[in-house]
Amino acid sequence: MSPSDWSWSPEAVAGLVVAGAYAATRRRFPAPAWRRACFLAGCVLLVLAWASPLDTLARHYLLLAHLGQNVVLAEWAPLLLVLGLSPALAAAVARPRTMRVLVHPFAALPLWLGNYALWHVPALYDEALRRPHSLLLLEHLLYLLTGLLLWWPVWQDAPRRISSQGRAGYVFAGFVLSAPLGLVLALVPSPIYDFYAAAPERLWGLTRIADQQFGGIVMASEQSIVFFAVFAYWLVRFLAEEDRLDYVDAVSGR
Q1: How far, in Å, CA of 28 to CA of 142, rounded?
Q2: Which residue windows are transmembrane per the record (predicted)?
Q3: Which of 158, 153, 159, 147 is nearest to 234 (CA)?
Q4: Domain ranges of the chain
Q5: pLDDT tens by residue, 24-71
């Protein structure tokens, strides 16, 4: 298979299914255009992650590509999908008791972190790539599901509203606890994953260790940008709320 081939893996259908399910709720749970655009963008990312040449590169050629694919599935697409839910639809989804437990910050963040760390254990990482239609599929689905849990408390008020400073602290904790993984991959002096030793060819002149180091750098850099941007958003919201309260207190003469 050529590195530029589209893979059209069965998982790619998931993005279309999710988009169709969302469209079916449009009348009952109307959402503003910006939310619909976010959700559609999340679905597009799912299709690209599973059908574009990124999937081909990830399955056969480059650790860098696989790490990038994981980032899309575990962080970018879930963030956009959660942002795309209207408050009414989010409240309906979060109504079951199981969901209320899973989207609690003290459950969502550990589940996401634990899942992320688990699939980077070398033996499991290599075995998943050797079993693309079972274990790798499970890996990708768990990345997506735990990613949805991760971002839920950040962007949705159901089933519990978290203060702006609470959301900022949650995102900061997520970054601090997840960042070491990318740094380890970037700094370790020898390859830790064996699967790509049998790659059909070494693309772009990357050795195995360079592939791993660039992948780690991409992971660490991406998380710095995404998590810092979200953290900054909620920090600014918090400061604006504090200024507004100070103004109200001043006007009322307190």
Answers
A1: 28
A2: 6-25, 37-53, 73-94, 101-121, 141-158, 170-193, 213-236
A3: 153
A4: 12-252
A5: 998 999 999 999 999 999 999 999 999 999 999 999 999 999 999 999
